[in-house]
Write the structure tokens for this entry.
Amino acid sequence: MKTIQIAVLCALLCSCVQTRRLERREVGASLALVTERQAKQETEPYQPNWTKVKKPFSGDSLYFGEAVFDSAGNRRMLVRLQPVEVVAKRKVIIERLGRVMIGFRVSVPRELQSRCFGIELMPVLHRQDTSLTLAPLVIRGGLFAGVQCRSEWRYDKYRHWLTGLGAQDTAARLDRARRLLVRFPQTGAARLDSVAERPRQIDYFYSQDVPATGNSGQLFVTLQGRVRALDGSIYGLPPSDTMRYTVSSMLSFVDTTQRFVKRIVKKYAEVRDRSYLNFPVNGTAIIDTLDDNGPQLARITATMDSLINHSEFYVDSVTLTASSSPEGSYAHNALLAERRARSLKGYLTDRFGREIDTLIAVRWVGEDWDGLRKLIAGEEGIAHRSEILKLIAQRTHDDGLESEIRRCYPEDYALLRRKLYPRLRAVDFRYSLRRRDMVQDTVVTAEPDTLYSRAVEMLKHRDYAPAMYLLESYHDRNYALALLSLGYDALAREVLEPLPQDPERDYMLAIVCARLGARDEALVYYRRAAETEPRYRFRAKLDPELSGLVENL
């Protein structure tokens, strides 16, 4: 450990700012679009076949090397030039199952390296308005790595000692100690963490599987990074070239033809609404502050206002029906329901004016036994539900029926009064509407299918799963495309085969058959598609399912 400390002191004495040399020369790392196969190919280092010698006094240079004779018999020097590698800045990548694989080579020159340096390189993926920082690459000099390990060891030793004391401020003291002891924290979650004992050219092929989201067909990759030196100086790497990826997907097969659905428009329409109003015991006055009456009255007036002032319909009539629960005598309940209905009509007339007085027809139901029967059928807490329903179905006298239920099933009757009876004290509205400027009683129109259009937009944005569920009932090319994009190849084939023959359908079937291992059928469909649409001959070289099949054609 003392050796490391002495070496660090010597390095610091040699230069005030260790990264100044990099700043002057603007040294940086580079990106290149190469395939993984090209990245793995070993290339022999360049060896010049000549030697340069300087004369000691004049300083002139002499070159000694191989010689050959040309066609005229003259001797010429043969010089082997250093090979030049040409790499592209743009590449086409294939989307499959909603994902794409990007690959590029990161080159770190030896001029950027030193035993005292720690290099951090962060590839950044740009897509539309979002950016994603990928896992970094870390290259550390031998001395820099030793200092990092030493500082982490010292911190761990202090942490174990402090934890054993059981002090209350352990967390705060550990935080201060880490800031003091660990000047160069190690980078976590690195894709590559390499210690370079000697500077040398380092090439790393970086591949990353990323989701293909959104409707953009372009991905961009840039390289950011920095160099940290043991003297604390930091050198930010200059901007790298931008790598551009063009995403080739199945989205070119999306059928954007507008679909229409038939809509039957009727001249007459009806709107029903139910509200629950509370009244004083044996009272008929409308009190908006009683229980939940305020919101209920607001909803009634809002509904009526929207229908009366509707731009498409006239209101021919409004039927207002008030009902009561069965407790008490039938005659009293019927009179109470009638008076409450007329009281509500008067309330609405005051709100909307005398012109609606002729629109509203008043009805009432003294005891709503049919409504009670439906409520009892859906209530599981009634012990003798079937017996009570039988009594209601066989009733001959309403007042006697309630007395019989109360006498035979007192516990169930108490539940009815507490839970179900309040729901019978209701007001039902039936609005009879007539469409404006319409002569015929029924008109059939064709309107755009908005559900289908929404599914197509989902496909364009690569939201394949929700698009598949929306398109399931259509069984067309877009539905097959969603299935293909999610890996349901056999089902996609079942959808495509019955469709009318066209180049798009045949080419998609070629891809499906190739995925399912039916190579001969895939070739048949491909040839038929390419004969009709020649551009598919070029596309097949990009699609991995067909590129191997057509390369020998």
